[in-house]
Amino acid sequence: METRNFKRVLVWELPVRIFHWLNVLSVLTLILSGFLIANPPALLSNAEATNLHSFGIVRYIHFIAAYIFFFNMILRIYWSFVGNQFANWRAFLPFTKKNWDNFKHVLKIDIFLLNEKKRELKYISIGHNSVATLSYIILFIVALISVFTGFALYADTSTWFLPKLFSWVTPLFGGDFMVRDIHHIAMWIFIFFIIVHVYLVFYHDWLEGRGEVSSMFGGYKFVNEDRLKKVMEEEKKD
Predict the structure, then answer these.
(1) Which has the closest alpha carbon to 147: 26, 18, 40, 16?
(2) How many helices, marked H, and strands, marked E, lie in the chain?
(3) What is the pTM for the complete model shown?
(4) Is residue 231 part of a domain?
């Protein structure tokens, strides 16, 4: 495609970008502090035991990050009802014929690395592609599991009402041991997702050259004018 056929389009609004980067910071903080909580390192010091509160600080950081993650997720759910078409909850419905065709196409390119002789307009995603939307739905479920199990583990020592709302989760799974294991497994799913997500974002940025990476900073992508026109027509029909 020739460069002159591309138009600069605002895809990711400011609230979506803020959500993304808050999510990045909170999830990385949760992972790092979670590793320390799961396997605390031995700290040698000649200070009085009452003056050592390293593990308590790690837990405090973990809890603060958990609250940011939780409320950030609520704000994103809200924005899925008031945001533009690319942030709207309808964009995450993968069970249409159009999205299924796009899903198979993205798998062919991303997984099997097959080259295209001609880039078909109908397969060019302006927002998230169909594989991404399905992965975000799965990740949202994993995030809910992390929230439920995390606050359940925190409920016994918390004085605030919010974590105590999840105290029923622990007896449901038979005790802290199982809840902690589920919480830990959810963390590893996040780690796997981050690795794949970062790779695919840079891969598509290189493959398509439409500003995939920079769009999450500035909000804009470069979209083929014919494709943009077709998407807008489909939006009017919906």
Answers:
(1) 26
(2) 9, 2
(3) 0.83
(4) yes
